[in-house]
Amino acid sequence: MIDKKLENAFNDQINKEFYSAYLYLAMKTYFEELNLKGFVNWFDVQVQEEQAHGMGMYDYVHERGGVVELGAIDKPVVEGKTPVEVFEQVLHHEEFVTSRINALMDVAEEVKDRAALSFLNWYLKEQVEEESNVGGLLQTLKLIGDDKKALLILDKDLSTRVFNPPVIG
After folding, report:
1. Which domains are present in the chain?
2. Taken in order 25, 99, 117, 63, is the CA torsion positive or negative?
3. 160 DSSP assignment
4. Residue 126 CB neighbour total at 10 angstroms
5. CA 26 → CA 22, 124, 140, 149, distances in Å?
6. Which of 30, 117, 130, 162 has the most C-beta neighbours closer than 10 Å?
7. What is the pLDDT of residues 38-62, one digit of tens each?
8. pLDDT at position 139 over 90
9. What's the gap between Cα 76 and its chain centre?
10. DSSP letters of 122-150?
11. Cα-Cα-Cα-Cα dihedral of 121, 126, 128, 133, to 10°?
């Protein structure tokens, strides 16, 4: 049986994972308006990944005998007015998610739940990868600057990204 404090922390993180999917869906809309289909595809994959992350935690709580309580998802706000600014927001958001995974791990350590720590290690590794990928994309966008041809080449490259359902845990 999962500790109640840890169950509550997982429920909070499940909400944050689904908020992430919602935020990335809003960002996808921004790139739809720019007709950058590769970026749209990149965000499609992000949405699917975040949903999978939320469902992984959802399933874990149930597997441990806990109860999932779904809360309201806040309205997402896309703060950027340019692709660079949008990806700066993405990176900031991923760093926030990493901090929340770390906080969830802190609770697991506090209640001495080694199974939860083992499970959450996958998420922590995933966050390192997410921050690295987004950071690299942001650097590329900054390098591109106002070069529309380079932006279209990057857009074409992003159209090849595919969703691979994660094996969590």
Report:
1. 4-158 (1.20.1260.10)
2. negative
3. T
4. 18
5. 6, 25, 22, 25
6. 130
7. 999 999 999 999 999 999 999 999 9
8. yes
9. 13
10. HHHHHHHHHHHHHHHHHHHHHHHTT-HHH
11. 170
DSSP state letter for 75: P
Give the integer Cα–Cα distance in Å for 41 and 157.
10
Structure tokens at 33: 């308006």
**Residue listed under structure tokens 């901090």:** 99
pLDDT of residue 29: 97
**DSSP 3-state assignment of 165?**
coil
Is the pLDDT score of 169 beyond 80?
no
Burial class (CB in 10 A: 0-12, 13-18, 19+), 97: buried
Q: What is the pLDDT of residue 6?
A: 98
Main-chain dihedrals φ then ψ at residue 145, nearest 5 degrees: 60, -125
* Global confidence as pTM: 0.95
Collapsing DSSP states into helix, strand and coil, what is residue 3?
A: coil
User: Is the separation of the CB atoms in 78 and 27 below 8 Å?
Assistant: yes
Q: How far apart are CA 14 and CA 55, in angstroms?
A: 8
Mean per-residue pLDDT of the chain:
97
pLDDT digits (tens, 9 = 90+) for 56-93: 999 999 999 999 999 999 999 999 999 999 999 999 99
What is the reported pLDDT for 97?
A: 98
